[in-house]
Amino acid sequence: MRVLHLIAFLAVLVTAVCAWTKEDHEIFDLVSALEKAEGKGTTFYSWLDVSSTASTPEISKAYRKKSLQLHPDKNKGVKHAHERFARLGVIAAILRDPAKRERYDFFYKNGVPVWRGTGYYYSRFRPGLGTVLVFLVVITSGLQYLVQKMNYNRDLKRIEWIVGQARQAAWGAKLNPVEGQRKVKVNLGGSARLDEDGNVMPGRMVDMVVEGNGVYILERDGSLLPVDSSTAVAPSIKRTWFLSLVTELVGKVTRRDGTMIEKASSADGEESDDGSGTGSDAPGSGAVTPKEGSGLKNGRAAATTMAGGRRRKAVSKKKARQQPQQEQEQ
């Protein structure tokens, strides 16, 4: 019954929100602007200094009097003088129009609604694409976290039920603890069925061990798997889709950078020097000569080696032959 009442209330609320017109939204804006400028609780009538039952001539007279006070020519240098004067004209026009005044009187007596519909707020604030995306990420992540929490509570109840079944099978209906280890079979659910002989077969039976307050599932290899609250997966913000995606991307980038660094380090270790910082041209040293390098332009690339991203030029053969001659002359 409460659910029906809630649905009916929401239906009435949606109907009321959908019934708000463009003129209603104009009144909402004026009420908010007037209270912000003149103080909270200020109404159209109180600002014009007339009663809510004032006639149209009385409102016109009050408007002329107020307009003389707020005219921008008499309020030079006053901040927001033009906005106040323009707002006064709009408010007076609403109160002098019978249909618009009747609509304002409705909100004047019942109060301006706090929630004015998504269309109203969207038309006023017009959020950008980034704001919409952030809103969707927050909403979807929050819903996913809520689902995780619901599943966690369900798993806790399921674990509590399994533990109770195992203890009842091991200790009896009165649940008097028994010392030592007891091996029992527990039905974890599933409907009973008939075998080929027509005998009733229970649901899914699992071998379990009860020892003290601990309850364990007996694996086929003889190991014991504890059954307690730690078995359930607790909800976590980090496991929501957006944070999981960010964590995965960061992990991939980190592993990729680590692999590149490792390859560069191995290249440094495998490079061989002849002690002078130049590449060795001796036979069997593995150095690539200009004639051996495939795709090398003019043989120049063979005189260059890469070591950890540092490019080092080897000494040319001509310069190498000149060094002994200079030493002999000296």
Give a brief rundown of this model.
With 330 residues, the protein is of the alpha+beta class. Helix content is 54%, strand content 10%. Among the domains are: 2-125, DnaJ domain (Helix Hairpins); 134-231, no CATH class.
Question: In words, what does this structure look like?
Answer:
By secondary structure, this protein is of the alpha+beta class. Among the domains are: 2-125, Helix Hairpins; 134-231, no CATH class. The chain has 10 helices and 8 strands. A 4-stranded antiparallel sheet has the order 1-4-5-6, covered by helices on one side. It has a two-stranded antiparallel sheet with strand order 2-3. Helix 4 runs antiparallel to helix 5. It is elongated and about 100 Å long. Residues 11-18 and 272-318 have low confidence and may be disordered.
Topology:
Blueprint: H1 2-19, H2 22-38, H3 44-48, H4 56-70, H5 81-96, H6 98-110, H7 118-125, H8 129-171, E1 181-187, E2 193-194, E3 200-201, E4 205-211, E5 214-218, E6 224-226, H9 241-270, E7 304-307, E8 310-313, H10 317-329
Antiparallel strand pairs: 1-4, 2-3, 4-5, 5-6, 7-8
Helix pairs in contact: 4-5
Give short descriptive properties of this protein:
transmembrane, J_dom_sf, alpha+beta, membrane, transmembrane helix, 330 residues
Beta-strand proportion: 5-15%
How would you name the CATH homologous superfamily of the domain at 2-125?
A: DnaJ domain
Mean pLDDT: 75
Oligomeric nature of the chains: single chain
CATH topology of the domain at 2-125: Helix Hairpins
Biggest sheet architecture = 4 strands, antiparallel
Helix content: 40-55%
Number of helices: 10
- Give the overall shape, derived from the CA principal axes: elongated
Order of helices and strands: HHHHHHHHEEEEEEHEEH
Radius of gyration of CA atoms, rounded to a whole number: 42 Å
Quickly give the structural class: alpha+beta
Runs in which pLDDT lies below 50 for 5 or more consecutive residues are: 11-18, 272-318
Q: Any idea what the CATH architecture of the domain at 2-125 is?
A: Orthogonal Bundle
CATH level-1 class of the domain at 2-125: Mainly Alpha
Strand order of the largest sheet: 1-4-5-6
